[in-house]
Design a protein that fits this description.
The chain has about 1000 residues and is of the alpha+beta class. The protein contains 14 helices and 57 strands. A hairpin with a 5-residue loop joins strand 12 and strand 13.
Length: about 1000
């Protein structure tokens, strides 16, 4: 019963105004903005009964708004109120304010004004052209001879020549089933055509001298001085560079390389001494020689990354009232103004399918602009556009990077100047020699841009521009590293104490021209050395070359890594972990009496922060980092607790729609990798994210706009499932219950359960937007699929499918189980027969503890939560985990590492247990979408005697703090203004309904 009362408080005030779920966004896209606000009051029962919104083009006009006055609207709605004023204009700042009337009819004062700004609303609004720099090889790279001593250490080693834009010739030395030379042509899109096989009577595992001469259309090959092939080819006649290639298990060593052109000039001449930087993305062994292995396309780098500049003048006598930079790139970019960085974004414009959509960003540069002459600057790196994407190589969207930008300066006299990118901009090679998101960055501090020349015009991509709609990637935190012992002479190790995503900022002292190598890893080997085998093809290595003998500080800008440990080839004065990720506000605090549970919560949050970087990735460390739909499908309901994920996941749903197939099926990754990988279409538990994620956003934020925007896509998908599932039994697809522990679940059981889930969720969303016909249609589909699932998979004694944990979880989660008691006992037995341990893979983990609670076995749920023996979350923590692992046994009980081919130490899927921790242990969930009504119903269990929990909802902060003392169970709650709550105590047989306010309850412990 409640035992305290709140004192009287003044009338509520309005605060925390947001537009499109963002605080004062710059550069919103076309369409009616959605406005939200909160009531600031701790008075019991504080609620809104009416509101009035005013929107104007200046703060002074809010008294008589020139854009919109809603009038007094009788409504309690304070979230996602759609703007209904005059048509918005591009590049315009709008001010808005709101007042409300409380439950007693008292009006608040007008809120402090908030702002939003439009960017371009259609392509014709954009002024900048697309510019770039010449990055292609010159004529000296047309006819030349390649000389190299090479050793094939496993299967094959390829040599690229006349490579340009990712295409060219590739001559492969292959030892599989006998030594042979296999000439290839690499085509647009990355495919290969084999031109033949020339048998070789040599042992390729020994060192051999390879010579390839290309002269016009003639290509002649010698091995150890003997000509073995000569052919005429006209596929690639233009100038092109050299490189090396391996794939899969292939590996080789290049001992030296000399490239001499037809004029006798040596274009490359290296013996690959230790520290050699001829191929910065390559691996030079400590004893020398270039090692090539795994999925590697190793090209000789072109010119350093281009920098761009243009001078602009602010006229004398003119006062600047507002200045904005708008920019986008094919690649990733950074802007500067008068030598200082513009904005605080990282890795802009982020990852989208650049063929369809490129995000533009808006920056406020009013304070950076000065009277008289100013210098605009920019740098562009390959990023996702032209750099390596996952394990599929580079140049997936194009080979030439490009920048578009415009500066718009508004003066006090009402005039505006616009300066856009065009051929009046100049370009020069910069100090960043190479940059790749997977391999790292190489920076030469000795270089300063010189030899400026006019920028090149690139083909326009303005039609693909759309203003970024979610929070950008930013630096969100920094961590100090401590030096630890290194067993390798000449290598210096630093520990940040936390597996994180970002880069290392290092302060070092060296000699001019000296290069320091910076390597990253998530864990250490048992001998204390840096463990990097699980990174696969990702080099995750930065290089810095000193300009002086004084202390210098370096922070990479065009890459990111997943790491806890940093290894340097020289001692550092300081090492700082620069944490990066999409800058979504953290919305949850959670603390219990259990150090293990607290650490698990920390691991979940850190995993989410690191993997929410432009898209929801599967791992930030190895050569993958793709938007796997299965991972976010199971994690979404945890994600919306921990971070404000509304804008971020709404953006990703656009990525998913961009990737949807013509038949309605969704891929298993979004964005897909062009001409390379979609992960498979319609996979059960993966593709279903296309329905579950928008449903989750609706539940968490009350957002029906995401339903309307995504509705046609969802309906196509669910209709696709129904039409491709004979007898309403759906196949399981390619992945099943991924990484389960010897507890497989039939694929058609999984697939059919997810079809039922999608049909029911779509029915509910149809009802939310008033589509009663579809509500009925998809509810009937759910009922029919449920009947088919029961008939196929539920035995008379209540056993489900193969008697796997995940089979029961999917059945109970989607209300497919006809006899809860019988099947609940069988489910509990799947836990008990494993000595109270889990065996689920990805598709069962999110429902594991919730279903145990549902069948009355929260005792087992609490046991699983707090287990420390393998397999369990506590086992990972016992092995030093500070983020959630990809596998339950990424480190085996004997201390060895699991399969290097797929073994991430930062992979959020198994962190989906968080939703149960917050909903059931802490006791907070949405009784109505968006937390308009809140359910506070903690269910304590053995080992946990205290829980303190807060959640920032669209209406304000919810608090649920409980503890068990000698007096029994005590609960303190705060219900935000303009909401109500249902309070359900552990020992209660009924619910208590309360209005906004703070309350304290006592009862029996359960």
């Amino acid at each position: 019963m409640p035992i305290s009362t709140a004192s009287a408080a003044p009338a509520p005030q309005v605060h925390n105004l947001k537009t499109n779920a963002l605080t004062e966004p710059l550069g919103i896209a076309a369409g009616a903005p959605r406005l939200s606000w909160q009531l600031d009051s701790d008075r019991r029962g504080a609620a809104q009964t009416r509101y009035q919104v005013r929107v104007a083009t200046s703060a002074s006009k809010l008294q008589h708004p020139d854009a919109w006055d809603s009038g007094v609207v009788r409504s309690d709605r304070s979230v996602e109120v759609e703007y209904a004023g005059s048509a918005l204009k591009p590049y315009t700042q709008y001010f808005w304010s709101v007042r409300v009337w409380d439950e007693n009819g008292r009006a608040t004062r007008w809120s402090d004004p908030a702002t939003f700004e439009t960017a371009q609303l259609k392509p014709a609004d954009w002024s900048g052209q697309w510019i770039g720099a010449n990055s292609q090889p010159g004529a000296e790279w047309t006819d030349y001879t390649v000389d190299a001593d090479v050793t094939v250490t496993k299967d094959a080693l390829g040599v690229f020549f006349r490579g340009r834009g990712g295409i060219g010739y590739m001559w492969q030395l292959n030892s599989v089933d006998g030594a042979k030379l296999r000439p290839h042509v690499r085509q647009v899109g990355g495919g290969y055509v084999v031109l033949g096989e020339i048998p070789l009577s040599i042992d390729l595992s020994q060192k051999h001298h390879l010579r390839i001469t290309v002269a016009g259309q003639s290509i002649t090959t010698w091995i150890d001085g003997t000509q073995v092939d000569q052919r005429e080819r006209s596929d690639h006649n233009a100038p092109g560079i050299v490189g090396f290639r391996t794939n899969g298990a292939e590996s080789g060593v290049v001992h030296n390389l000399v490239v001499t052109n037809a004029a006798g000039k040596k274009l490359v001449d290296t013996a690959f001494a230790p520290g050699d930087q001829t191929f910065p993305d390559g691996t030079v062994l400590p004893t020398g020689d270039l090692q090539v292995k795994g999925n590697t396309d190793l090209w000789l780098p072109g010119p350093p990354l281009p920098v761009f500049r243009r001078t602009v003048t602010v006229p004398a006598g003119k006062k600047v009232v507002r200045a904005r930079m708008y920019a986008a790139a094919q690649g990733i970019y950074e802007l500067s103004l008068n030598g200082n960085k513009v904005g605080n974004q990282q890795l802009a414009p982020g990852w989208t399918d650049y063929r369809l959509r490129i995000q533009s960003q808006t920056y406020d540069v009013t304070r950076q602009l000065r009277p008289g002459q100013n210098v605009l600057g920019a740098e562009v790196a390959p990023g996702w556009f032209a750099g390596n994407v996952a394990m599929f190589g580079s140049q997936k969207y194009g080979s030439d990077t490009a920048l578009t930008a415009q500066l718009r300066v508004t003066y006090s006299d009402g005039t505006t100047d616009v300066v856009g990118t065009d051929q009046t901009w100049q370009t020069a090679p910069g100090a960043v020699r190479v940059a790749d998101l997977l391999n790292g960055e190489s920076y030469d501090a000795r270089r300063t841009p010189a030899e400026w020349s006019p920028a090149l015009l690139r083909p326009s991509a303005t039609a693909q521009l759309i203003p970024q709609a979610d929070q950008p990637v930013r630096v969100t935190q920094t961590l100090s590293a401590k030096a630890i012992a290194s067993p390798t002479p000449g290598k210096y190790l630093y520990d940040l104490g936390q597996n994180m995503v970002g880069v290392a900022r290092v302060k070092l002292t060296g000699q001019p021209g000296q290069t320091v190598t910076i390597r990253y890893g998530e864990v250490l080997n048992p001998d204390g050395t840096l463990y990097t085998d699980n990174l696969r093809g990702a080099k995750a290595t930065d290089h810095y070359t000193f300009a002086t003998d004084q202390p210098e500080t370096y922070q990479p800008r065009f890459t990111f890594h997943g790491f806890r440990y940093v290894e340097l080839s020289a001692p550092a004065d300081a090492v700082t972990g620069v944490v990066m990720g999409t800058d979504s506000p953290q919305t949850t605090t959670f603390h219990t009496n259990s150090a293990l549970v607290n650490q698990l919560h920390s691991n979940i949050v850190w995993g989410q922060r690191g993997n929410f970087l432009s898209i929801p990735t599967d791992t930030p460390a190895r050569d993958e980092r793709m938007g796997w739909t299965g991972d976010i499908n199971v994690f979404a309901r945890t994600a919306v607790y921990n971070l404000d994920s509304q804008a971020f996941l709404t953006k990703w749903l656009q990525d998913l729609r961009d990737s949807q197939a013509a038949d309605g099926s969704y891929p298993s990754v979004a964005p897909t990798v062009p001409n390379s990988f979609d992960g498979g279409l319609g996979n059960a538990g993966w593709a279903d994210a296309g329905v579950n994620v928008p449903w989750t956003l609706w539940q968490a934020y009350g957002d029906t706009n995401v339903i309307r925007t995504h509705y046609a896509s969802m309906a196509r998908y669910v209709d696709y499932l129904a039409s491709h599932s004979p007898g309403l039994i759906r196949g399981g697809g390619d992945y099943g219950d991924w990484l389960n522990l010897d507890d497989p679940t039939p694929g058609d059981l999984i697939g059919t359960a997810f079809m039922a889930k999608g049909a029911r969720q779509l029915s509910q969303m149809a009802a939310a937007i008033g589509n009663s016909a579809d509500e009925t249609k998809y509810r009937k589909l759910y009922d029919d699929v449920r009947a088919a699932w029961i008939a196929r998979f539920v035995a008379a004694d209540g056993k489900v499918g193969s008697d796997s944990q995940t089979g029961y979880i999917l059945g109970f989660t989607n209300d497919l189980i006809p006899d809860v008691t019988k099947s609940g006992e069988h489910f509990a037995n799947t836990i008990l027969r494993r000595d109270t341990h889990l065996s689920t893979g990805f598709l069962g983990v999110d429902g594991l503890l919730p279903v145990l609670t549902k069948v009355g076995r929260s005792d087992l749920a609490y046991k699983l939560l707090q287990n420390t023996s393998y397999p369990s979350w506590g086992y990972e923590i016992g092995k030093g985990a500070t983020t959630v692992w990809e596998r339950w046994n990424s480190i085996n009980p004997d201390g060895t590492f699991n399969d290097v081919g797929m073994n991430s130490f930062n992979h959020y899927a198994y962190g989906a247990v968080g939703e149960w921790m917050y909903r059931t242990l802490a006791g907070v969930s949405a009784a109505e979408p968006g937390y308009r009504k809140i359910l506070i119903a903690p269910q304590p269990g053995a080992g946990i005697t205290r829980s303190d929990f807060t959640l920032e909802t669209p209406y304000g902060q919810v608090v649920s703090n409980w503890k068990i003392t000698a007096r029994g169970f005590q609960l303190e709650v705060t219900v935000p203004a303009n909401t109500t709550a249902i309070i359900r105590l552990p020992d209660s047989t009924g619910d208590l309904n309360v209005a906004a306010g703070t309350y304290r309850f006592e009862g029996r412990a359960g």
